[in-house]
Design brief:
Blueprint: H1 7-18, H2 24-40, H3 43-58, H4 67-79, H5 86-94, H6 96-104, H7 111-128, H8 133-146, H9 149-161, H10 171-184, H11 188-199, H12 210-215, H13 217-222, H14 226-240, H15 247-258, H16 263-272, H17 283-303, E1 309-310, E2 318-319, H18 320-342, H19 346-355, H20 384-387, H21 394-406, H22 412-422, H23 430-444, H24 449-461, H25 465-481, H26 485-504, H27 510-532, H28 539-560, H29 568-587, H30 591-607, H31 611-627, H32 631-645, H33 651-667, H34 671-687, H35 691-708, H36 712-722, H37 728-731, H38 733-749, H39 753-767, H40 774-789, H41 793-810, H42 813-827, H43 833-854, H44 858-882, H45 889-912, H46 918-934, H47 938-951, H48 958-980
Antiparallel strand pairs: 1-2
Organism: Streptomyces luteolifulvus
InterPro entries: TPR-like_helical_dom_sf (IPR011990)
Protein name: Tetratricopeptide repeat protein
Length: 981
């Protein structure tokens, strides 16, 4: 049973159905309601039910169903226009426009029928006395659709020239269409100028700015305004995600992802809407969706792998290549149907052009979580001589490899690998074989020990004992890196003694000797690090370990001093030794000395032409500077690290540096710049495969920076993306609570109050277990606010009650009083009623007065008095609101008198606070004046109004101007009231 027995019940049911999500379920309910309306045997009920059905069809994937109810409505109008009330007459003419656009979207409707319908619309509008603006807009849509540019331009001009009247589309929808045409004609700047009022929130409606945000994506990219495009995507997709009827706008977002290096997000978007692949109710939007699907799949096929699994139409598994072919065929078949109907090739040409687009940006980080779609290219290109190893002369390859290794270039190991490949089958001397083995060992890490030993043998065979000893010590250092420090120290002892003796006899050079000494220093530094994390050593042992390491490091410096010159390797040894001393200074607690030494090491690497080696030490310097409170130096060092890392910087390091820089500049109040660095951090974390760890933290920070700027929709999208990856084990439960808290704030600002309450309650549940309960109380209070705004007064009252208990336990009178006031207002809309509301507000007054009497601090008394004044003021407002309209005049007057008494109390409290509370006092004074007037006492009202004017005699700020204007208006009103009396 539907329960619909009268017209009012039918209207309530239609209103409730209108609030349901778009889709077949809402449409089916509209069909049921039409059947119920027909049983009522009331003509207007049937008319309204048909209009409701038509509306839900129009905003759904079953748009093709709307022609039948409209045809029936039009017949009813022609037969019995007197059955239509004023609103339904307006609605009937309004939906003529839907019919025009709806017919264009259906290729089975002949073009002649559409033109005939356009003429019918023009005729009926003229009879009804409407402007031709809506007619010319519809004509423009027809001409643009078929590709008749001249007619479209004429109709466009006539559309804009005609007067706006009640039949014109809303400003937001009109501006969308106008901007779309400018973009279609290649005038992106003009398009964005048209869209500006919609993008900035000046005009909006049920489907705007949804479609304008989607349409603006590519024009913004083409104009180089990537940041705005990113923001439009995050804002816009959030709006269209749940709206079934917006497949065309949804397609624009998929297209954006395909053209900005966000193919993985594009796949996620396809997966969210599987029905879009098959819904046939709007063939034109299906064409758009299949075209961008083909575009995205082509891009994925290009990136590889070719057998990548992708979401597609239900019933089978799809690879990107297969779905590309399927989507292209579907799109072109639909385009051909439209072109056959239209007698042009316009739709097919546009579709092919759309599917054939090339990326507009190699990468545009969005900040939201996304899996990588392909392996990132190596950060540094292999030199040409290496890349063509099979064809190059071996001698040239060998010379290039030696040049790269002698100057410590990043591709030295790859260059030697190319030499090895080119030398297969070629007899080489021992020196070259030693160098090949040496560099192959460097590339193998812990598995390179045997190769280092083999290189040592070959160097000795080649007559270079110093380099042989250096290769042996490199093998020893690998042992230390593997945690075998004692074994490494034993292995380095004999080469160390030997190289010093050899150097003293001029049997080897400074470079080879420095290499051995540096390997020994590195091993001893590993022992320092191990000792720092070990509980097995006493202070004396620690001091000895530190002393041994420092002695070894200074030995390196003493050796290379005066010998560096243009030798890059020796310069690198000296710089690394400075960094080691800095590390030892940190261990010793000499942080300022450490910072100076790290700065010296970084500068030395940069001076030697090895800036990428400076990155680690600039990052360490940044951390020390931040700890020492030198935020400017921390920022400088982080920027230098990013600059010096250049293309050699790995994705993880780049993410970490950007994230640190975001935190530093964000802490200095530069939220916009911090946003950019957090965005980069999230992107590079994803590139490094660390999206769930480092990437989640970056998104957490990014969401916070966006929130600070009031970019609520973008922040919400990013924070929602961060939450699934944030874990208490990795990020701490504080990060999870803060993310939910921020997200609740964003959702509240966006009017999504039920969702905001849910997030705030989740955060409160975690904070409930913390020793400090301030956050728990605050979150419970915020959740109560959201529940109240969501129209859930009983749930809100329970949450406010809980918050009040927490505020009381914390001794926070202000929080307690505000929770009581909020409950008082809620009581008016629940079963508790006015009596409970009055008691709660009275309780708030008592709490203020008790705390004020006990306060022994001047600042606390001032704040509590302010709270008391506002509570009295709200009490007065509540008393006015609590008197039902049907109450006897005497009861209403009593309520007004009591409200005036409470407002007067507020005035007295604010007056005691002096100039700081002037605005609050005068607001209360004006409220009391209005009450005096309502009670028929114009003289008292006038006196209060003049008091307000006197209060602002010495100031002329904005508040003063506003208050004086209100007071003067009130004086005019009560003067007239007195005259009437």
């Amino acid at each position: 049973m539907s329960g619909i027995t009268d017209f009012d019940a039918l209207r309530r049911a239609m209103g409730e159905n209108s609030e349901q999500p778009e889709g077949p379920a809402r449409n089916a309910r509209a069909e049921q309601l039409l059947a119920e309306a027909e049983r009522l045997d009331i003509p207007l009920a049937v008319i309204e039910a048909l209009g409701h059905q038509l509306k839900v069809y129009n905003y759904s994937s079953e748009k093709d169903k709307m022609f039948v109810p409209f045809a029936r409505l039009l017949r009813l109008w022609d037969e019995r226009p007197e059955d239509f009330d004023e609103y339904e007459v307006h609605s009937l003419h309004w939906v003529f426009k839907w019919m025009s656009s709806g017919m264009l979207d259906q290729p089975h409707v002949p073009l002649a029928s559409i033109e005939k319908w356009l003429g019918e619309m023009e005729h009926r509008y003229r009879l009804a006395g409407h402007s031709e603006r809506a007619v010319r807009s519809a004509e423009f849509s027809v001409a643009a659709h078929v590709g008749d540019i001249d007619r479209a331009e004429r109709a466009y001009g006539a559309w804009l020239a005609a007067d706006r009247d009640g039949m014109a589309d809303c400003h937001a929808c009109e501006l969308h269409g106008q901007g779309w045409w400018q973009a279609e004609r290649g005038r992106d700047t003009e398009a964005l100028a048209r869209w500006r009022p919609v993008l900035e929130g000046e005009f909006s409606c049920a489907h705007e700015p949804h479609t304008v945000l989607a349409a603006s994506l590519l024009p913004l990219l083409r104009l180089g305004r990537a940041d705005e495009a990113r923001a439009s995507h995050l804002r816009g997709f959030r709006l269209v995600r749940a709206m079934e009827s917006m497949r065309g706008a949804y397609a624009d977002h998929v297209e954006f992802c395909a053209l900005t290096g966000n193919e993985a997000r594009g796949l996620e978007l396809l997966a969210e809407r599987p029905a879009y692949f098959t819904d046939d109710g709007n063939p034109h939007s299906k064409l758009e969706f299949m075209a961008v699907t083909a575009l995205l799949m082509d891009r994925l096929t290009e990136l590889g792998p070719v057998d990548r699994q992708v979401p597609g139409p239900a019933g089978r598994a799809w690879t990107a290549r297969e779905l590309a072919a399927h989507a292209r065929a579907e799109a072109l078949a639909l385009a051909a149907r439209f072109d056959e109907r239209n007698g042009t090739s316009h739709i097919s040409e546009r579709t092919r052009a759309r599917m054939g687009q090339r990326p507009l940006a190699e990468r545009l980080p969005l900040g939201v979580r996304s899996a990588r779609t392909a392996a990132s290219p190596p950060p540094v290109a292999v030199p040409a001589a290496v890349a063509t190893a099979d064809e190059a002369d071996l001698a040239a390859l060998l010379a290039e490899a030696r040049r790269l290794s002698d100057t410590l270039r990043p591709n030295a190991v790859e260059a030697w690998a190319a030499v090895a490949r080119a030398a297969e089958g070629v007899e080489l001397d021992a020196r070259v074989r030693a160098e090949i083995a040496d560099h192959a060992a460097m590339d193998r890490g812990p598995e390179g020990i045997e190769l280092f030993e083999r290189a040592a043998e070959l160097y000795a065979e080649a007559g270079d004992p110093g380099e042989s000893l250096a290769a042996r010590t490199r093998a020893a250092y690998i042992r230390a890196l593997a945690g075998r420090v004692d074994e490494a120290l034993a292995a380095v002892a004999e080469p160390y003694d030997s190289v010093l003796a050899l150097y003293a006899e001029d049997g080897t050079g400074v470079r080879q000797t420095a290499s051995v000494l540096m390997s020994r220093a590195r091993i001893l530094m590993r022992r320092v690090h191990e000792a720092a994390y070990s509980n097995d050593t006493d202070d004396t042992d620690d001091e000895a370990v530190l002393a041994d390491a420092e002695s070894a490091v200074r030995e390196v410096l003493a050796l290379v001093e005066g010998h560096v010159g243009d030798d890059v390797r020796l310069a690198a040894r000296a710089a690394e030794a400075q960094a080691m001393l800095a590390d030892l200074a940190v261990r010793d607690g000499a942080l300022e000395t450490a910072a100076e030494l790290f700065a010296r090491a970084a500068a030395a690497f940069v001076g030697a032409g090895l800036p990428w080696f400076a990155v680690e030490y600039e990052a360490r310097l940044a951390g020390l500077a931040h700890h020492l409170g030198d935020i400017a130096e921390a920022e400088r060092a982080l920027r230098a690290a990013l600059e010096h890392g250049g293309p050699q910087l790995e994705a993880t390091g780049r993410a970490q540096l950007h994230l640190q820089l975001a935190e530093v500049v964000g802490g200095r109040g530069r939220s916009e710049e911090a946003t950019e660095h957090a965005l980069e951090a999230a992107h590079w974390a994803d590139e490094a495969g660390e999206g769930p760890t480092l990437g989640a933290w970056a998104r957490h920070q990014l969401g916070g920076f966006l929130l600070r700027q009031g970019r609520w929709a973008e922040a919400a999208e990013v924070l929602e993306s961060a939450l699934p990856d944030l874990t208490a084990e990795t990020h701490g439960d504080g990060a999870i609570v803060q993310t939910q808290w921020w997200l609740g704030d964003c959702l509240s600002e966006l009017g999504e109050h039920r969702a905001a309450a849910e997030r705030r309650l989740q955060a409160a549940e975690t904070a409930r277990h913390w020793p400090e309960q301030q956050d728990h109380a605050t979150l419970a209070h915020l959740a109560a606010e959201s529940l109240g705004h969501a129209g859930l007064p009983e749930e809100a009252d329970r949450a406010y009650t809980r918050a009040g208990e927490l505020w009381r336990s914390l001794g926070d009178v202000h929080g307690l009083v505000r929770s009581l006031r909020a409950r008082a207002w809620l009581a008016l809309s629940t079963g508790d009623g006015p009596a409970a509301a009055r008691e709660l507000m009275a309780g708030a007054v008592r709490e203020c007065e008790t705390a004020l009497a006990a306060a022994d601090d001047e600042e606390a008394r001032h704040l509590l008095a302010t709270e008391l004044g506002h509570t009295h003021r709200q009490f007065g407002d509540l008393l006015i609101r609590s008197a039902p309209e049907e109450t006897e005049d005497e009861a209403i007057r009593a309520a007004l008198e009591e409200a005036l008494s409470r407002t007067t109390e507020a005035i007295g409290v604010f007056a005691s606070l002096g100039a700081d509370a002037r605005n609050s006092r005068t607001a209360a004074e004006l409220a009391a004046a209005r009450l005096e007037a309502d009670l028929g006492r114009p003289t008292g009202a006038a006196t209060r109004a003049r008091t307000v004017l006197e209060a602002y005699a010495d100031t002329d700020d904005e508040a003063a101007q506003t208050r004086r204007a209100e007071a003067r208006q009130l004086l005019d009103d009560v003067t007239q009231q007195a005259a009437d009396q």
